[in-house]
Design goal:
The protein is mostly helical and about 180 residues long. The protein is built from six helices and two strands. The protein has helices at about 5-10, 60-80, 95-105, 115-130, 135-145, 150-165; strands at about 165-170, 175. Strands 1-2 form a two-stranded antiparallel sheet. The chain is globular, with a radius of gyration of 26 Å. The protein starts with 6 loop residues before the first helix and ends with a strand.
Length: about 180
């Protein structure tokens, strides 16, 4: 039986000599990121305004033909080339992301499906490139309104084209 009142009980078990402890210097996080946030802070505006569709990057004959004939493919490819996965499916392959986004926009199974997908993509593009306009509700109204849905898509596509250095190809985007 151990007597807690004895001096032996209260004496330290380890040596009195302390080994110096080295304290690691904390690594400073970049000012643009916070733990758990992989995107820069929202400080920029969109490269082009909402109604500046005709002044977007690479606007010309290829732009008009692609947008008239295969707008879902070019939009899906643009979002795929940005590296954004609006569905959080962790799809690494760019062509698979492009196909899923394009089909989800073209083949509506649920009412407003394409609007929701475009809104998710718009918000993710804004987050990725540090654009202040990251409001999901505003994005949804922009993609639902017949007057602004195409303009919103062009604004998103232009931003990705500028940031990722893309131009129109044949039903797809090409890296310059």
């Amino acid at each position: 039986v151990f007597d807690s009142s004895s001096e032996e009980f209260w004496s330290p078990v380890y040596s009195q000599e302390a080994t110096p402890v080295q304290i690691a210097t904390p690594v400073a996080m970049p000012a643009t990121h916070t733990p758990g946030n992989m995107y820069p802070p929202a400080t920029k505006d969109w490269d082009k305004g909402l109604f500046e569709c005709c002044s977007m990057k690479d606007c010309g004959a290829k732009c008009c033909i692609n947008e008239l004939c295969c707008c879902c493919c070019t939009y899906g490819d643009t979002i795929a080339k940005s590296g954004i996965d609006p569905f959080n499916l962790d799809i690494k392959e760019e062509s698979s992301r492009c196909m899923i986004i394009s089909l989800a926009i073209c083949c509506e199974l649920v009412p407003c499906q394409s609007n929701v997908i475009r809104t998710m993509a718009r918000v993710e593009v804004a987050k990725k490139y540090g654009i202040k306009d990251q409001d999901m509700v505003k994005g949804f109204f922009l993609t639902c309104c017949p007057c602004t849905c195409c303009c919103s898509d062009f604004q998103v596509m232009n931003q990705v084209m500028v940031e990722e250095n893309l131009r129109y190809g044949c039903a797809q985007m090409e890296r310059i």
